[in-house]
Amino acid sequence: MHKDDGHSEAEVGSTTVPQALRRVLDLVVSGAATNRAEIARRSGLARSTVGQQVDQLVGTGILDEVESRSSVRGRPPRVLTISPQAGTVIVADVDTSTTRIGIADLTRRVIAQESVDVWIGAGPQAVLDAVTERLRRLLEEHHRDPGRVQQVVVGLPGPVDFEQGCAVQPTGMPGWDGYPVAEYMRERFQAPVIVDNDVNLMALGESEQGAMETPLLCIKIASGIGSGLITAGGQVYRGADGAAGDIGHIRAVGGGTALCACGNVGCVGALASHKAVLRSLGIPESTDEDPLHGARELARRIADSDPTALHAVRQAATEIGEIVAMLVHMFNPRTVVLAGPLSELRDDLVSAVRAAVYQRALPLATRKLTITASRLRGSAGVHGGIALATQEVFSPAGIAELLAGSSIR
User: Fold this and answer.
1) Does the keyword Transferase apply (predicted)?
2) Residue 232 and residue 334: Cα distance in Å, rounded?
3) Which tens digit of pLDDT belongs to each residue from 56-72?
């Protein structure tokens, strides 16, 4: 069998990355090969070439080569893994009243995650200042070198221009339209930044960490209603302008005259969002003492089987189910995941959405469909952000950046 000598190179950005090195790293990252012999066999590279590339990656701290814990006779085999110290990725999943943050190594192991309570209406600078300060402290507390941050991911609860790294005409987010979120975070962490819609990150988290089948459609029911779609190939579908998934502004099947924040009437988000359910029950969304008052009070009433609250949730679920049925016909997903505060209230919402979908959608689209609540709940966006960040780090351009930050030249 012909063996590649590994001398061909790929130009990525300003760094020339040896093709052989990329192939070795790709096999280890994907888990397709865990030792030198497997790499040589799967890549077609000569063993000497594999040895040179592995030695280089190990020497610069990107890979670790350790003895296997498997019980074997004779000398224990040595296995290759991504070094936990090769770098750190940072995620900030911004929501209306709370931002969930997390840091992880390049193996996707979560090092730490927590919440930062800051109201999105305070504006982008106030929110991002608070988030940045806490992320820096997390790095310090867990002894992660801020100079080894390889990627930052920010999720925003509104339409996002993925290329420019900013929100585009979001509702309920004063001051955020066009604000250069990516540039702001890049200056503070000196690392590449991705800004994406929060439900895209949640969908990716459920797909990757929650191990749910794709195509996957995630529906977030919170202050508004949004969705994220993961294709059968594991990619996020964002649309031409970042507006894909903004389903809260589809007109509800039942119609209605409720005024939406977008200026139209009868939008499903104005009738069936968590915020709309609270309004219909006369429950304040927040108080001075408790920014999550509405969620807590509604959860209490549902737990107490309050008939008015149960009816409101089931009515909202029916409206959402009609929209989901339409999306099921359009995208034919294998899994629909319901997330957000309403999805965490017993099984009432999930059951009612499931009933509406099965009633409205044709059997061909639903025969293998699973409709379920989020497995990861509040941490889905962080896990999705980590997955997106590591995908970017180990993309061709990301590998070039990773190598440029080491002693490989």
Assistant:
1) yes
2) 9
3) 899 888 999 988 766 55
Superfamily (CATH H level) for 88-201+381-394? ATPase, nucleotide binding domain (3.30.420.40)
Q: What number does CATH give the domain 213-374?
A: 3.30.420.40
What's this model's pTM, rounded to 2 decimal places?
0.90
Closest CA to 243 of 256, 229, 253, 231: 229
Task: Give mean pLDDT, residues 166-190.
Answer: 95
Give pLDDT tens digits for 300-340. 999 999 999 999 999 999 999 999 999 999 999 999 999 99
Q: Please count the residues of the chain.
A: 409
**CB under 8 Å to 307, separation ≥6 — which residues?**
none
Domain boundaries, the chain: 9-82, 88-201+381-394, 213-374
Q: Which residue has the tokens 């979120």?
A: 181
**Rounded Cα–Cα distance for residues 36 and 34 (Å):** 7
In order, the DSSP letters of 71-98 are --SSSPPEEEEE-TTS-EEEEEEE-SSE
At the topology level, CATH places domain 9-82 in Arc Repressor Mutant, subunit A (1.10.10)
CA angle 300, 303, 308 (to 5 degrees): 80
